[in-house]
Amino acid sequence: MSSDSTIKPCAPRTPPGIGHANDIDSLNAVFERQLNTLEQHLHDLQRQVQQLQRMASVGTLSAIHAHEFNNLLTPILTYTQYALTRDDPALHRTAVEKSNKNATRLAALCQRILGLSTGPTGGTTELHIKPLLVEALESIGRDFEKDKIAVGIDAPDHLKVRADAGAIQQVLFNLVINAWQAMLDKPGRLTLSARTTHCGFATIEVTDTGSGISPENLHRVFQPFFSTKFDEPKSYRRGTGLGLHVCRQLIEEQGGSIEVQSEIGKGTTFSIQLPSA
Question: Which of 13, 118, 170, 251 could disulfide-link to 256, CB 3.0 to 4.6 Å?
């Protein structure tokens, strides 16, 4: 074979569009823009999920309040209708006083629904914890004694956190609702407590003596669309599978964290850590 027929090595082929450093820089810029777009879409979806869960919470609250609304409206109608048939100033005054009392409670229930539907504002402020715990219980609009549930609050008057009031209101409402639902089938106790912990954080705990969470489900409670209450016949006892997932999102957005401990047959405690003010 002649020297002219010797096989010579081929020069490496450069992939199209990546032949020069500026081409690589262009591709990196495209990837970065796409990544930023995807991150924005994810952020928007998270906000939509939080809004959907908030509306679900409003629906649950409305279902609970519907019975209380009826209990408050019935005396108003009864007293006013009866007073209109009598020419008795004392009776008229009694009817007006009782109607005013019940109407004030109705207005408060409506205000709680509106407050929950408003949700987070996106800004943080200094918040006293104890009033938040009191409002979380009152927002249910339910006499816990009727369900044989004892309620207790243990929090220092001076203890404050830095957070978004709407976000914390939504989280506490969901935790209180979950605790209440867990004790509807037997007498129990619901305790809301708060204390100063380490490194400039405060801890808020919501503890119930309900049915508890099984070990195989405990690590899944913060996962989206996980719920053991999908098939509950009553709407106010039914779950969406988003409540605790959104709670964790909201708390982490405040620079905090949330954990859960539970034991079957003994109860559950949700612990929230937030920056103290």
Answer: 251
Q: Name the helix (H) or strand (E) containing 244.
A: helix 243-253
Non-local CB neighbours of 13 within 8 Å, separated by 6+ positions: none
Contact 78, 107 (CB under 8 A): no
Q: Looking only at Cα atoms, what is the longest distance across the chain?
A: 131
pLDDT at 250 over 60: yes
- 24: in domain: no
pTM confidence score: 0.64
Whether 178 and 236 map to the same domain: the answer is yes
Answer whether 245's CB lies under 8 Å from 229's CB.
no
Where helices occur in 85-187 by DSSP H, the ranges are: 89-118, 129-138, 165-182
Q: Which phi and psi angles does 244 have, rounded to 5°?
A: -75, -30
Q: What is the pLDDT of residue 86?
A: 86
Is 140 found in the same domain as 71? Answer: no
Q: State the residue range of the domain holding 207.
A: 119-275
